[in-house]
Each structure stands twice: as C-alpha cells, then as structure tokens.
Design a protein that fits this description.
By secondary structure, this protein is an alpha+beta fold. Helices cover about 35% and strands about 25% of the residues. The strands form 4 sheets. Strands 7-11-12-19-18-17-16-15 form an 8-stranded mixed sheet, sandwiched between helices. Strands 1-3-4-6-5 form a 5-stranded mixed β-barrel. Strands 8-10-9 form a 3-stranded antiparallel sheet, with no helix packed on it. The longest helix is centred in the first third of the chain and has 22 residues. It is elongated, with a radius of gyration of 29 Å. The protein binds one RNA strand through strand 2, strand 3, strand 4, helix 6 and strand 18.
Length: about 475
RNA sequence: GGGCCGUUAGCUCAGCCGGUAGAGCAUCGGACUUUUAAUCCGAGGGUCCCAGGUUCGAUCCCUGGACGGCUCACCA
C-alpha cells in the first residue's frame, strides 16, 4: 500500500470512459479493425498471471471485459508494479486496443492503466454463493459478486417504471403524502412511534397512505396514486419487512368494479412484460394472466368450501363449523373475524390462478362502502395470486356520518384491547364532511408483486437493504 | 413470541468417542509471455459467537444469552 501510494494516486477524481463493456462487445468489429484505443473502467474480479503476462477480468456495471497486461508492452517497471500491486476488488481504468485471445475471449491489450479506487478488504470467494445473511447484510458484496442479483434489482426498477407509466397513461397524478403523521390510519396494524422535538409531540410513521389520498379526492384531484414506503411494527419473516412498498390509487366516480378492471389490466400488463407471454411460474405453479381473471364472492367461495351457505347462520353456529375445520378460535373473535379465518384456511391456499374475491363481511373493512344489494357485506375485492393477497380494493365509503359510526366501532374495539383497531381521525372526517365524490380505491403490495414476477419466495431477495438486527447488538456477550 | 437447526481463518465449509483445529478460494514469497475456478512450489493467518458450569482437560457435554436459518403464530 505505502509503496504503491508513493507511485500513484490510489483515489483519483474521475475517469474518462470511452466505452462500456456492452459497447465494446457491440462495436468489436470496428474497434478491432481500426485499432482504436479505448478507455474502460471497472472492478478487478480475478487475476491470472503467467509470468510476463497478466489476465485480469474487469467488470463494469454490465459485465466483464478481460484486460491483458504484457511486460513487453508496458516495460519492466510498470509491469512489476501492476502485477504485484493490483488486487482483486480494485477499481481500475485500462487503456488499450481490443483483440480476441486464441481462446476467443474479447480482451483489451493494455497500454496504460490507472487506479480508480484501491480495495483494502478482499472480495468474498467466488465459487460459492454468499450466505443469505451476508447477502442481505452486505448487499454491495452480493451485487458485486452476482450478476443475477443485479438483474433482479434492475427488474424491480423496471416494474416500478412500468407501473408509473401505466398510471400516468390513464391520467392518474402521482403524489406524495406525509410519512410522519400525527395520527395513523388506513389499515389495521401497529405503528412505529417517534417524537417531534420542536413541537414536543408524538408522530407516527404511516401504515398506509389511504386517508391522505382521499383528502386529495375531496380537494378535487380526480385520479391520484402514490408508490411509497409504509411502516408496520409487526413481526418479520420471509414475506414481511418492517418497511415495505405500497401502491395506492384512487379514482373519483369509480366503484370497485371499475377498480377491478383497472387492477386486472395492470397485473396483466406486468405479466406480459415481465413474464413469459403473459404466463408466470411461481414456486412451481404455472399461472396464466392472459385469460379474464376469475371473480368469486367471499361468501360463495366459503359456502363451496364448507358445503353450506354461512350467511344466514348465527355467530355460534359459524364458530362451531370453524372449530370443526381447524380454525383456532379465540375469545373476542367476532362473526366476521371467524369467517375471515375460515376463508384464510380453506380458500386462500387454493387461489393460485389470478382470482378476485369480492364482497367481504363488513366489520373487517371499516373504510369500505356497504354493498348496494347485500346487507352485511361491503363492496370490496382482494386479488389473490399464487395463494397470497396481491391487492385490496373498495368502493370507498364517502358518507361522513357512516364513516364516523365505523370509526366509533373501531374505537370500541380499541378500548376492548384490540391494539390494531383503527383510530378516529377527526381531521379526515372533517375533510369528508366537505364531500368526497364516489371513489374507487386500490392498494397493492409492491414487494410481493415483484416476488411474484421474479419468482422468489423471500422478500429479502427483492429489497436492496432488508431490515436486519445489528450484528453487534448492544448487550451482546453480556 | 414458541419449536427445531446453526454460529470454526477475509469468504464457503469440514472437524470422529472430550485431549488446544483443517480444506478450497483469498493473502504473502517464488516459477511460468494467450490465461478462463489458470497451473506448480512454499509460507502466514483462529477470542472455534459470548458468559457461566461439569471435567485433570471443553470447539465438542450442560445452562443462560446474542445473532442467523427454517417453521408456527400475527401481519401485507
């Protein structure tokens, strides 16, 4: 290091690149014929010396190009410096002409080279994958070592770009609403809590965007969407990270049927773009998105699974059936909660092909509008794919009087000890009292969507920096 | 939060019945002028996750803790 540092600048300020690795490959013929001198920067990923020559694969953002150092070309001193002092992991720029070795590898015959950044820690070993923990904890190493990993995250980016283009093309306005909220709402979940010093007040990290986006509908924006991080203070596992990305969209004058058409259109568009002609393989399941998505009702699917219509039954009768089917009944579970558990157990696992489940029981959906025909139900749908919920949508409740009653019901649940019950948001109610047009709304979990499209069963594979406990936790070893 | 499994060199991993530890890659020294996981010769590198306990002796057995993986519960 010291010896090297005396000779050259190890951390210069830039490098004038003439070609990327892709461009070198694409323009090989012309560049080789004209013996053009190219300048190519990247990271050294291996080092193979044969005495008075040295072969060094140099990777840029897209892939490798081999650099070839030859003593006769560089001179005794420079060749010695290079072959001794460059290491795997270093960033260098090489200048020279393009040729193919006799084994057919596209290679730059190096005339000159510069360090761009000297690595003082080694890259991990290249024959085995990093452990899952190290991949997640030190994503930079995963990305440095695995082209598939880079590709997966590029795909995630492309999916988000496609979603934005989909909504932009349908006159939806992309907006940003607060992450820090004095009151959280729009979903049932425990929040992260923080504190604003100057105002000396408690603030919450949002668990959903819903109530702010609806305020915008009240304000007169007819179509809005937001792609944003939400935060939920719940357990972490293969499909849950404390912060995750959610898409929410709202359209004035729409009901949940309109929203269902939009959702189907969006998901099909993505499946066509990122799948194999509109079909996707996920966890060994083959799914076809080209056909119209199946549409079933919540109670209808349950009736089929149980063998009888549960709608007319009283709570204790439903509880008895649920108990028989293996639902773990807890005290305080209402009728709709039991139905929901029964549905999760009996119906959801079989919803592999894209399926809309419609018209849910009312209690589970405090922000959805009552069903226009069926007492006790709301106008809601969930989209299931590969057995998990991908999207959730309502004809949004826009009657402020009814909304207040629903909030009061939730408040009663809260006081009864349900710490996930929704809070009464007076400011939101006041907005709604000014009049919210009939509105359709939809939310979609983007991380799960990406998991589906890239066929992985671990959310950490689609999050660049998934949440991990600190390696050196306070109190470790105590 | 519960259950099961794991934590050993920079990385990926072996380590038998309790006797103070190994491989490959990486690193360092040497040989080699077209290599592809280059090859060949040689060397260095360890708080065996942490704290207790049992034992003449613990990487190994026991207890507790930390972190990780799978899984169940909760949730998206």
């Amino acid at each position: 290091m010291e010896e090297l540092g005396r000779h050259v600048d190890l951390y210069p300020y830039g490098y004038d690149r003439t070609h990327t690795s892709c461009e070198l490959r694409d323009q090989e013929e012309a560049l080789t014929a004209s013996e053009t001198v190219v300048r190519y920067p990247g990271r050294i990923m291996a080092k193979r010396g044969t005495g008075k020559t040295l072969f060094v694969p140099v990777w840029d953002g897209e892939g490798p190009i081999q650099a070839y150092f030859r003593k006769d070309d560089l001179g005794e001193e420079k060749f010695r410096l290079i072959s001794k002092l460059i290491d795997i992991g270093d960033w260098i720029g090489v200048e020279g002409t393009l040729f193919r070795t006799r084994t057919g590898e596209l290679t730059i015959a190096v005339k000159d080279f510069t360090f761009l950044a000297k690595a003082i820690r080694p890259l991990p070993e290249k024959y085995h994958d990093l452990s899952l923990e190290n991949k997640s904890r030190r994503r930079y190493l995963d990305l440095a070592m695995n082209l598939e990993s880079r590709t997966r995250f590029r795909t995630r980016s492309a999916i988000l770009r496609e979603i934005r283009s989909f909504f932009d093309g349908r006159d939806f306005l992309e907006v940003e609403t607060p992450v820090l909220q004095p009151l959280y709402g729009g979903a049932t979940a425990r929040p992260f809590t923080t504190h604003h010093n100057a105002l000396d007040m408690t603030l919450y990290l949002r668990i959903a965007d819903e109530l702010y986006l609806k305020r915008l509908i009240v304000g007169g924006f007819e179509r809005v969407y937001e792609i944003a991080k939400d935060f939920r203070n719940e357990g972490m596992d293969r499909t849950h990270n404390p912060e995750f990305t959610m898409l929410e969209c709202y359209a004035a004058y729409w009901d949940y049927h309109d929203m269902m058409d939009l959702t189907e259109d969006l998901v099909r568009t993505l499946a066509v773009k990122f799948g194999d002609e509109g079909s996707l393989t996920y966890g060994g399941h083959e799914m076809d998105f080209t056909q119209p998505f199946r549409r079933i009702t919540f109670m209808g699917a349950l009736a089929e699974a149980v063998g009888r219509d549960l709608m007319p039954l009283a709570t204790d009768e439903i509880a008895a059936i649920a108990g028989e089917k293996g639902v773990e009944l807890k005290p305080g579970m209402g009728r709709d909660k039991i139905l929901d558990e029964l549905f999760s157990l009996l119906v959801e696992p079989d919803l592999i092909q894209p399926t809309f489940v419609m018209d849910h029981p009312r209690e589970l959906s405090p922000l959805a509008k009552a069903h226009r025909e069926h007492e006790g139900l709301v106008e809601r749908f969930e989209l299931f794919v590969a057995g998990f919920e991908l999207a959730n949508s309502f004809s949004e409740l826009n009657d402020p009087r009814e909304q207040r009653r629903r909030f009061l019901d939730q408040k009663a649940l809260l006081e009864a000890g349900d710490d996930e019950a929704q809070r009464l948001d007076e400011d939101f109610l006041q907005a709604m009292e000014h009049g919210m047009p009939p509105t359709g709304g939809m939310g979609m979990g983007i991380d799960r969507l990406v998991m589906l499209l890239v066929d992985t069963n671990n959310i950490r594979d689609v999050l660049l920096f998934p949440h991990m406990r600190p390696e050196d936790a306070p109190g470790a070893g105590a």
